[in-house]
Amino acid sequence: MITKQIKLSNQSKDRLSRLKGKTGIKNWNILCRWALCYSLGENTMPTDIPVASDSNVEMSWYTFAGEYSELYEALIKAWCISKDLPTDEDTLSKYFKLHLERGISYLSGTNFIKNLNDLLNLASEGEKYERLS
Fold first, then answer.
1. What per-residue confidence (pLDDT) applies to 1?
2. How many domains does the chain have?
């Protein structure tokens, strides 16, 4: 398990609140999954900065990942391996948090996502790009 508890920063909580309003997605964990996957899809390292855990939004790893916990953990591990990083628990947890924060920032930082369809289109554009590569 990467981490037992996930606690978001106040900034991420605010960003997710806006995304919840735009997309109609009611659960933090669903948007967090989108954010993690979006960040993992980027070909760059997330900025290694301290991640604040100062909000009241907290969830367990199982709430975040659900029945796909092994898959999400494998995605983080594969990303670390692709970047020649160690795959110990501390490293996996660190990059999980960095990717989650970056993904939330990316999804909320663009004015592209105005509704649920925009979020879905973002995923399908990634699929098109992968097929062309």
1. 61
2. 1
* Residues 6+ away with beta carbon under 8 Å from 88: none
Continuous segment of H or E residues that includes residue 60: strand 58-60
Q: Which two tokens stand for residue 12?
A: 């991420």
Q: Which amino acid is at 45?
A: M
CA distances to 9, 19, 46, 76, 109 from 114, rounded to whole Å, are 23, 8, 25, 28, 11
Q: pLDDT band for position 132 (50/70/90)?
A: very low
Q: Specify whether the CB–CB gap between 48 and 42 falls below 8 A.
A: no
Distance CA 117, CA 33 (A): 17
For range 102-110, the mean pLDDT: 86
**Residues near 25 by Cβ (< 8 Å), separated by ≥ 6?**
19, 31, 116, 119
Neighbours of 9 (CB within 10 A): 20
> Where residue 117 sits, what CATH number does that domain have?
1.10.1220.160
pLDDT range class, residue 50, cuts 50, 70, 90: confident
Residues spanned by the domain of 113: 5-132
